[in-house]
Design brief:
It is found in: Cell outer membrane. The protein is mainly β. The protein has seven helices and 47 strands. The longest helix is centred in the first third of the chain and has 16 residues. The chain is globular.
Amino acid sequence: MMFKTQPAAARRNDFNPLPRAATGLTLAIRLALAGAAAAALPAQAQAQQAQPAQPARIQYDIPAGPLDQALSRYAQQSGVALSMVADQIAGKHSPGLKGSYGIDEGFAVLLRGSGFAAKRSASGYVLVAQPGPGETALLPAVTVSGDRLTGDAEQAYRVGAATVGVLGQRSLLDTPYSIDVVSRDLMDNRQAASLVDALKGDASVSMLVNDMSGLASQISIRGIGLDLVNGRKIDGLNVFSWSSELPLEHFDSIQVLKGAGGFLYGFSQPGGIVNYVTKRPTEQTRLALTTQVTESGTVLLHGDAGGRFGPGDRFGYRVNLVDEQGDTYVKDGGKIDRQSGSLALDWRITPDLVWSVDGLTQNRKVTGSAGWGLYPNASGETGDYAAAPVLDPIKGSKRIYSPFTSYQTKSDTVGTDLAWHMAPKWDAKLAYRHSEMDRIYENGALYANQRGDYTEEMYAGTDRYKTDEGQALVTGAFDTGPIGHEVTFGASYGKTKGYTSSVSGYEILGSGNIFHPPRFSNPHLHAEPADTQTSEVTQRSVFASDTLHIGQHWDVIAGLRRSNIKDSYAGYDSSATSPTYALVFRPLSQLSLYTSYIESLEQGAIAPISAANANQAFAPLKSRQVEVGAKMDGDDWSATAALFRIKRGLTYTDDNNVFTQNGRSRYDGLELSGKARLTPQWMVNASAIFMRSKVTQGVPDLIGNRVDGVPRQQFSAYAEYTIPETRWVLTAGAQYYGSRFVDAANTVSLPSYTLFDAGVRYVTKLGAMRTTFRLNVDNLADKAYWMTSAGTLLQGAPRTIKLSAQFEY
């Protein structure tokens, strides 16, 4: 069954009037939203999101038949957008397509003799009448959007293609790595407010910290936390955001690479990469406004506008503005004050040359809840980091930090790229991104024993981080006899600088019992500006790969990246090579079997001054991953399975007081996932991971232990049911998190727990506006539970109720 749907990007986002006076960025956002609403005119069609460059060769098996059906199936398998007018191709026939083709080649075969051709545009492809000499005859207004997997609810939130690092845009079916994509539609329908919310449907992802009880969302993938510096990307380029919550309203999707990615992305820990994909200009005028309120009193307003203008619609824009304020679910002092804005522009200089630029700014402050964590010890005193049995979980609605503590982040990022389709089958791209983030902390940490006796301490200071990354990338395709080649080569350069306050504040606020906490006096610590540089790390790399298409059924991938990392403040300068190899076999057009090998690189260690080899600098730390998997796509469903083994490098000091990075930990796992539209009424997503982790080499007392923070199994499920002959949709979700150890010695553990979600949405039209009402209840049973990160405990979110109304013109 094929789905005739509008792209997910064409129908999103959030709005809300706020009760108190607005100033600064808040006022600017409200005025801009009000002006946009007053000027808006109903659009005749939904906007379609701009699409990135597509893969050069894909295996196809499309039978001969009606041209419109063949084109729809081809667009879906290719993961591209195709705009066409159905009436003009009615009754035309296509010879079908079988074999390995580049996308342009495939269109040419399907359209042979039809009098039409597929022409590239910034938004994908558009069907044009074959022109005479010197003519270019575009078809009239777009009335049908070619079928493709865009992540809509109707398609069970399936996405057909994603950016795979330097390999570029690839069909997920033919990609020999585990990748999941969270679409805009899924984020909206679950009312995701943070990275933890957005990824809770993937069992391979564990939540370590949420956006209210800690500094920002922290996750692990396959049991390994994201790299703090290199684990998050925007449009494939690095952005320093590990302690800042990126505002989801400004992104069209989130792509998650599960496992090592050294060749694909450069230096990073082997758990995975999270890539945020920005919203881009829409093909037709669009305006969406959304209001949201929570049961605690948080009110959010979000506006999203896009379109094109100028001669031939050469210029495109996309604007998103967000304002959120009010009381959080943390009672007796929890507050949030958040504003953000983004702008994306593009210029179609020629049909084959497009320049894009985007910017995002955010100011976010959380009061009364965001801390550095609770250390479970036996004394309840500060400075005692020896893990001890933990106290009973405390509901997330109960405040445990002093109400005057706060955590604020100010983030800005600007990116630009120039994409050139320089010849048939050949593309080049130059991209650059700059980001800055200030974190202003006037908060602290807790130390508590099992009885609840605790001490609270408070810190005050400012940290600033600046990152720059540029990349030059060329992709192309050619044949050598019967073998097709899809090549990638390029270079990247990145730099991260860190700054901190030369003067910082510290105070022990007091002690008591956390189940009946006293109110401590406010010491009025002040966070001074970040005026002292403390780090500067530079990364350089060159890379190349070749995907060989051998016949209709086999692909072989070989890639190599040579990287250098230099830490100017630590006196560190070293280089390493990271390869990847993969084999893909397609016995059927909708089934791929694969095996892959890939490494990850982390900055090597420098021996501490207490070691016998003090100040010795080590080469970049390598981790290695082997994966075997299967992927299958049906018309209404998709399923994946992957077996993996990750061998991660560890540092330790041996019995002779020699510091080394010859330690090893091992992660063995099985991942299963499926997404299906079972009937017109029922939709189901489900995933599971079964994992064994242990220390295999290192400190003798730890060998054989489970790696702390890693569960043995996790499960996630989400379902939707559309009530027949109505516009009501019922939703339900469940996530099971397995038990895990808090400490490396495996002496303290946290029990397993299960969370349940429920919701309902209603879609209607109010005049010219498509209107969607959503009600979501997360943690339906109000379960109290602890999350754990780096030996600390953090409160899980309590039952949370969100109600929103979305209006789309």
